[in-house]
Recover the amino acids of this structure.
């Protein structure tokens, strides 16, 4: 019997261990002093070892056969439980359905979790079986469909990094706060308020984002003292923007255009120039102060245009319901590689086996921690 953590190392409200191996169920039942619940059921129990109660736990028998123990999330309790459960298992290779289930546990969006749960429930395997049963041009077509679904799914599983740039006082931090829904970045009418790159997570139209607020750009004279600090902040902002998936540039461009990611120019503080009624503002104008919800919509529209998104995350999940979709980055690369060789290519021949292979969990905790 061994156990492996399904939750990340460290303290938390709960820690979930998956218990597997020889006689795991009977030995676990002995530690709990009662039979395990039936498959698909949950029960409350006490984990007792050598007469000492380690924790009150939820025992979950998953349909896939594994048993989960949901402990309280103290690292000391988890260490003691692991010691009595046969130690921590090294990360084992898992089939795609199992990996999809694990990925669903930590999916950054509801829509993404929904598609992953479908993959865990058999959609992925059905798609691979169809692929395996096909030949030549038909297989290339099926692989093309899989790749297209992967492209739709990816922004639901991997946050899109959006950097907000522009001159000082453009309203970047105000927009940042409106997007993440909290007043986290400092806002003031002092030019050069933001120095560090500030990151915040949010969902926009059901897609997960990481938004970066950056230092405002302006010409500064001699780079000494405070000015040197501000100049360093501007450079940090430019580096962050160059690595982002999308740059939202507020106001007329000051400084060089960013290399790399697509840039959408929007005009902030629209109330000051166009009045109080958002329906009268030109396209791309926003006021995160006066109309934060409208500002979120404007950014969502800009992101969709630049990144080729169509529909909301929930609509994408709906369109993929019950269909197989690749969900790990290497799967997209495998599909692209196989398709690049054409319908008669050797990689298309081996593609079904390649996609169906077992692989380690991406988030496996290093053993010994
Ligand atoms: N009227 C109006 N004022 C705004 C709007 N957005 C921001 N402001 C004001 O503009 C000033 C600057 O806003 P910030 O969000 O701090 O601007 P910033 O671009 O982050 O500035 P730096 O960090 O200095 O580069 C503050 O006084 C805000 O209250 C808006 O939509 N309408
Ligand atoms: Mg700012």
């Amino acid at each position: 019997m061994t156990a492996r953590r399904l939750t990340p190392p460290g303290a938390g409200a709960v820690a979930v261990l998956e218990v597997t191996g020889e006689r795991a169920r009977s030995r676990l039942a002995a530690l709990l002093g009662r039979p395990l619940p039936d498959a698909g059921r949950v029960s409350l129990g006490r984990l007792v070892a050598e007469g000492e109660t380690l924790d009150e736990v939820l025992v979950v028998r998953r349909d896939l056969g594994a048993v989960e123990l949901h402990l309280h999330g103290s690292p000391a309790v988890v260490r003691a439980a692991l010691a009595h459960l046969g130690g921590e298992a090294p990360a084992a290779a898992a089939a795609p359905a199992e990996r999809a289930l694990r990925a669903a546990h930590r999916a950054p969006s509801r829509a993404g979790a929904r598609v992953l749960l479908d993959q865990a429930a058999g959609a992925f395997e059905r798609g691979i079986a169809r692929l395996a049963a096909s030949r030549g041009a038909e297989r290339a077509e099926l692989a093309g469909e899989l790749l297209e679904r992967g492209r739709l799914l990816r922004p639901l599983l991997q946050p899109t990094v959006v950097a907000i740039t522009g001159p000082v006082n453009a309203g970047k931090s105000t927009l940042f706060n409106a997007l993440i829904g909290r007043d986290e970045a400092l806002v003031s009418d002092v030019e050069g308020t933001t120095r560090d790159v500030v990151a915040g997570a949010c969902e926009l139209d059901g897609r997960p984002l990481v938004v970066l607020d950056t230092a405002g750009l302006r010409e500064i004279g001699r780079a000494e003292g405070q000015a040197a600090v501000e100049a360093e902040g501007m450079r940090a902002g430019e580096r962050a923007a160059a690595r982002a998936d999308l740059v939202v540039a507020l106001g007329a461009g000051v400084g060089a255009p960013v290399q790399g990611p697509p840039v959408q120019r929007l005009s902030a503080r629209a109330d000051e120039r166009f009045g109080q009624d958002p329906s009268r503002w030109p396209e791309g104008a926003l006021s995160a102060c006066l109309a934060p919800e409208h500002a979120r919509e404007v950014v969502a529209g800009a992101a969709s245009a630049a990144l080729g998104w169509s529909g909301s995350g929930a609509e994408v999940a709906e369109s993929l319901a019950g269909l197989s979709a690749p969900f790990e980055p290497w799967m997209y690369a495998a599909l692209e590689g196989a398709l690049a060789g054409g319908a008669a290519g050797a990689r298309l021949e081996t593609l079904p086996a390649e996609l169906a292979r077992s692989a380690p969990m991406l988030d496996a905790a290093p053993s010994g921690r």
Remarks:
- Residues 206 and 254 are 32 Å apart (CA to CA).
- Confidence is low (pLDDT under 50) at residues 364-369.
- Residues 2-89 form a domain with the Gyrase A; domain 2 fold (CATH 3.30.1360.120).
